Amino acid sequence: MSEETGILYLWQSAPRVWQAHHPSTGLGSTGIDRDEALRHFSAIFNDRQSVRIIDSAPPRPRREGEPIVAEAAVTADEKHRRGYAVYRELLKAHHPDACGKRTFTGDEITAALIRLWQATQ
After folding, report:
1. What is the pTM of this model?
2. Are the C-beta atoms of 34 and 10 separated by less than 8 Å?
3. Between 58 and which of 7, 9, 75, 89 could a Cys-Cys bridge form, CB atoms 3.0 to 4.6 Å apart?
4. Domain count within the chain
């Protein structure tokens, strides 16, 4: 998706209610059918940029303490578990809170990346 394209969510929220929502601008519209909701949105939006229409409601925000969906995929098999464990270890070792203003050489960064890559093989 280029910088010129936005996402427009278009979904039916009740038997005769359709909604359109453009998250990056906060603009939205409603209608009694899909075409009317899209027509109202087009009149408001005035072709500011091209949009990619997604025929579903926008994803709901994650609540505090709710597990991240990606974590389930990361821990699904042994190869991903090993890689994720090494990733977390490297993150702790190289995080600015742990090492302050220390800078890393290209060799150190390459060694960390190779270690992460080898953990997933």
Report:
1. 0.51
2. yes
3. 9
4. 2
**What does DSSP say about strands 27-31 and 5-14: parallel, antiparallel, or unpaired?**
unpaired
- Residue 14: name the closest of 30, 35, 38 by CA: 30
Please provide residue 8's backbone torsions phi and psi, each rounded to the nearest 5 degrees.
-120, 115
Side-chain half-sphere exposure of 79, counting CA atoms within 13 A: 4
Q: State how far the Cα of 110 lies from the Cα of 107, in Å rounded to an integer.
A: 5
- The pLDDT tens digits of the residues spanning 63-77 come to 888 776 666 666 667
DSSP code, position 73: H
pLDDT of residue 2: 41
Q: Are strands 5-14 and 50-54 parallel, antiparallel or unpaired?
A: parallel
User: Quick one: tokens of 49?
Assistant: 């940029």
For residues 79 and 106, state if they share a domain: yes
Within the chain, what is the greatest distance between any pair of CA atoms?
A: 62
Domain span at residue 82 reads 69-119
75 and 49 together in one domain:
no
Tell me: do 83 and 44 sit in the same domain.
no
